[in-house]
Amino acid sequence: MRTLTPLQSIERSMTKKFRTTLWRPFIEGIKQYQLLAPNDAIAVCVSGGKDSFVLAKLMQLLQRHSDFPFALHFLCMDPGYDTRTRHKIEANAALLDIPLQYFNTDIFQVVTQTDRSPCYLCARMRRGHLYAQAQALDCNKIALGHHNSDVIETVLMNLLHGGTFETMMPALPSRNYPGMHLIRPLYCVHEDAIINWQRYNDLSFIKCGCPLAENCTLTESGGRRAAVKALIKRLKQDNPDVEGHIFQSTHRVNAERVLGFIER
After folding, report:
1. Closest by CA position to 27, among listed 40, 15, 38
2. CA-to-CA separations, 160 to 165, 235, 261, in angstroms, rounded
3. Which has the closest alpha carbon to 81: 118, 116, 106, 110?
4. Phi and psi at residue 101, in whole multiples of 5°?
5. pTM: predicted TM-score of the whole model, two decimal places
6. Taking a C-beta distance cutoff of 8 angstroms, is the pair 44, 72 a contact?
7. How many Cβ atoms sit within 10 Å of the Cβ of residue 178?
8. Which of 16, 42, 120, 246 is the most buried (most CB within 10 A)?
9. 52-61: per-residue pLDDT in tens?
10. Residue 175 and residue 181: Cα distance in Å, rounded?
């Protein structure tokens, strides 16, 4: 048997060891929701966390074996990371052979000066900068690393805290950038698969480089999402299929058994 390089071993694990939990759901999600088309130009947004790096690597492998051509640009926005965080991202990009295109913003500086919903403001500003950079590169799509667990948790968060039944969509047209679409290629990939792949390859990624991360976790969506994760974990003890049922419910809304709906 030939000796594999660290990169070859990481890539092989995605398509072999974790084929049924990582690679296959990734491909099935793209096909089911028609996320890619010939000659797409896609800006893959890499924050530096495990989800975005897995997305970047899977998209790179898919491009290598795809039946039709499409272009990839791997964008990494630095909103004001400290030196150690930036170096960690750069080291992982080198290890995974992801040619990141970096650009700097002052988002962290801006959000630290507001007392009201800094996490919401940060997310909105990040999205705007990413769309603008993607448009400058003549991309027609941006790809984000939200996975199946994010989708399921969002359903419950909206039910419990927003009083609505809605979730993250696999693809959305941009309202402010005509011709641009947001896609979520990890839509059918469970977070556990990503964590298991990370541990198998002994990889370490940043969690959040935000200077307000601790406070945001306690006061905003971070705390609520953590609570929903814990709720799902408890529910799975009695019903191991609960996550799949929640996800399926977003595909099986019975219009005759709802009291109303909102058109946007």
Report:
1. 15
2. 9, 15, 17
3. 106
4. -105, 110
5. 0.92
6. yes
7. 8
8. 42
9. 999 999 999 9
10. 9
